[in-house]
Design a protein that fits this description.
Length: 172
């Protein structure tokens, strides 16, 4: 029994569930307090040049910083409890976060939008190119928890599914 309970905080599967539940609880508490977490949900706008990137960064700096801090703290806690080395995780997380932001900006360019290359596809292409050309340093491997990030994203995506759709779908 002890071993089964330990899985609740020692596996990526369960941590992705805890992160999703935690975000839903934070959203509910914010709603009860008369506010929302909508300010955290920032995405780069369509990019027309370097000046537009700088303007967007200035406009949304608070939201990006909030996402970075909240997700950084939450992922650090989960990584520590799963037994990973935070000294290796933190630098890699910073690189991944900045890389993700760059991917969003590049995907927002007119060229990428003309060819319908969205951020997830661009990230996949960049990841495939990097992983097949460059040898990933050992210290970076702790941060490259692809399945963990994907699982967390799926749980968070599921958390945003409007309940009205579920009600309209009816019983299975």
């Amino acid at each position: 029994m002890e071993m089964k309970l330990e899985k609740l905080w020692k596996t990526e599967d369960w941590w992705s569930v805890w992160l999703g539940l935690g975000l839903v609880l934070v959203a509910i508490i914010a709603l009860w307090m008369g506010t929302s977490i909508k300010g955290w949900a920032v995405l780069p706008s369509k990019i027309t040049g370097f000046a537009a990137i700088m303007a967007d960064l200035a406009k949304n700096a608070g939201g990006y910083l909030t996402i970075f801090i909240v997700m950084g703290v939450v992922f650090c806690i989960s990584m520590k409890l799963m037994g990973h080395d935070l000294k290796k995780f933190i630098p890699g997380f910073i690189i991944l976060f900045v890389g993700a932001l760059v991917i969003f900006y590049v995907a927002g360019t007119k060229f990428m939008q003309d060819y319908n290359v969205e951020a997830p596809l661009l990230a996949l292409l960049v990841g495939l190119i990097i992983s097949n050309i460059v040898k990933i340093p050992e210290w970076m491997k702790t941060s490259l928890r692809t399945e963990y990030y994907v699982k967390t994203g799926i749980v968070l995506l599921g958390a945003t599914l409007p309940f009205t759709i579920i009600v309209k779908a009816g019983p299975i």
